[in-house]
Amino acid sequence: MDERGPLTGEPLALDLVNTRPAGPDGRRTDLIATPELLAAWLSLEADRLPAEARGSATAADLAALHAVRADTGAVVDALLEGAAPPRAALAGLNAAQRAAPPVRELHRDGTGVRAVTCRTGPAGAVLAAVFAEAAVDLVTGPGAAGIKRCEAEGCVMLFLPAHPRRRWCSPARCGNRARVARYYRRHRAAQAGSEPS
């Protein structure tokens, strides 16, 4: 995995929040800062998105998704700190869902009828609603209490561990870096202890 690339594979809402990683200098980078970057990131998430949330990305789509990302991040941060989520963030996620609510449409299926849930509206509103709903599912679901922040120094990534001993956002991204740093600390300490006085 490219350390500068997006971290994917976590719940959809966490993948969105994780599009703002911190660099080595501690400053955050926006991995979906432009419509082109957003389109590339959405292609990585395509198999988890409904058809109406895929497609071209515009500046309006970007603004709507950035707002959902900020609101999701604020709610998750509050949960991690054991604090009440900000009302404005909750209101923002609710508003994003209302802008393109899910509708059960009827479709003919051979000789029968089936219902398909979809969203209608402007592409940016649909995209924001899909991610806002993913955030609601995450923070109200059983996994909410298990969300963790990566323990690697300087990393701000969030994850939902499948294993209780998981400490890093990714073994390739931070796990290896932490293990190498630990090895060098031990190696330097052993060398310092073996030097003649």
UniProtKB/TrEMBL annotation:
InterPro entries (alphabetical): ABATE, ABATE_dom_sf, Znf_CGNR
Pfam assignment, any one: zf-CGNR
Domain Zinc finger CGNR residues, every copy: 147-187
Gene3D superfamilies: Jann2411-like domain
Superkingdom in the source lineage: Bacteria
Protein name in the entry: ABATE domain-containing protein
